[in-house]
Design brief:
alpha+beta; Alpha-Beta Plaits; 12 helices; 14% strand
Length: 350
């Protein structure tokens, strides 16, 4: 790994307030950290670009019209312009910066660079696996809290929601979401509220047109499956059935739902046309949905040292970054400001 060749000195941080120099310095630091070997090719699964741009035209026009409104603040206008400009790019270019920049993270094992992803978890294998690891841990903690706070006799039940396919992924997904809302209201009027965590899933199906499903983990006492099925059919008439499965181990339920969180549309059975339709149909929507108050504070812990993984101060650490690979690396716990005798407070807190 070589030092920047544009004259930017990683050791000399620009003074506070020099915005242009500060931005250039940060970009040089992140480029210095980013691995470039093997990153020349795009890792996103192929998408029909023409169909995707055609299906995204309403969203692009909406953000373009939004940017022209007169009552927007400067930040709102800049956000609308950025969204419209982003939707005008090809889908492949939207993932070109995946793992080309990042920040330094630190724990008891020392500092290490953590690269930024493109967050296209449906078509990017790296981002999908990273998202699945984090989401499964959050679901596991939330389920444990849901079971502990529920009265005795409650259990975790996984409900699988299906709907008759109309070859329109967006319409099927919207109707499935609306049906679940009506089912929750009917359940609440009859028995009261209940906590839940759900995730959407899309499969190709035999006709290769895309079929929407949903898997929901609910915590409630024993209920008659027939009555619950009747509530669901009334809430979602186009749904033929709903499947219930009682889970003895809540952690196994988190792993089971995590399997669907980690699924994308990058497998070989998805065609580029179907990927474009699924991406356009689910634009701006949530794949993971929960009841209120389900998520609990989650602090990631290092599996080696057991300490919390915290964001290190990129600016300060990189003022002592090595110029070449042979130079010694300054460990974050050994770092000192000039004339300072103790470890910085931010590191003492973690």
């Amino acid at each position: 790994m070589e030092a920047p060749t544009d004259g930017t000195d990683l050791h000399e941080k620009p003074a506070w307030g020099e915005l242009h120099a500060q931005t250039a310095w940060r970009r040089a630091c992140l480029a210095y950290l980013a691995p470039t070997e093997g990153r020349e090719t795009q890792q996103l699964s192929p998408v029909d670009e023409g169909l995707w741009r055609e299906l995204m035209t309403p969203h692009r026009d909406r953000w373009t019209a939004r940017s022209g409104e007169t009552d927007l603040t400067p930040s709102q206008r800049a956000y609308a312009v950025a969204r419209a400009r982003s939707l005008d790019r090809t889908y492949e270019s939207r993932g070109a910066g995946c793992e080309r920049g990042g920040r330094m993270m630190a724990c008891g094992c020392g500092p290490r660079p953590v690269m930024f992803g493109c967050r296209k978890h449906l078509t990017c294998e790296r981002c999908r696996k990273k998202r699945a690891r984090k989401t499964v841990a959050r679901i596991r903690n939330a389920l444990d809290a849901m079971v502990r706070s529920s009265p005795s006799g409650h259990m975790v039940v996984m409900a699988t929601l299906t709907i008759a396919h109309s070859s329109d992924v967006e319409a099927d997904r919207r109707e499935l979401v609306d049906g679940w809302k009506r089912f929750r209201k009917a359940y609440r009027r009859r028995w009261g509220k209940f906590p839940f965590i759900g995730v959407h899933e899309v499969t190709t199906g035999r006709d290769a047109l895309g079929h929407m499903h949903a898997h929901v983990l609910c915590v409630w006492p024993w209920r008659d499956w027939g009555k619950l099925s009747a509530l669901w059919r009334a809430a979602c008439p186009r749904s033929a059935r709903i499947n219930f499965q009682a889970l003895r181990n809540p952690r196994a339920g988190a792993e089971y739902v995590g399997k669907y969180v980690s699924k994308g549309v990058d497998t070989a059975d998805f065609t580029p046309e179907l990927r474009a339709r699924v991406l356009a149909a689910t634009y701006g929507s949530r794949w993971l949905f929960t009841s209120r108050g389900v998520w609990v504070p989650f602090v990631p812990l290092c599996p080696c040292c057991g300490q919390s993984i915290t964001r290190a101060i990129v600016d300060e650490w990189l003022t002592r970054a090595p110029v070449c690979a042979d130079d010694p690396v300054v460990r974050w716990w050994e770092w000192r400001r000039p004339g300072q005798e103790s470890i910085p407070e931010i590191y003492e807190a973690h």
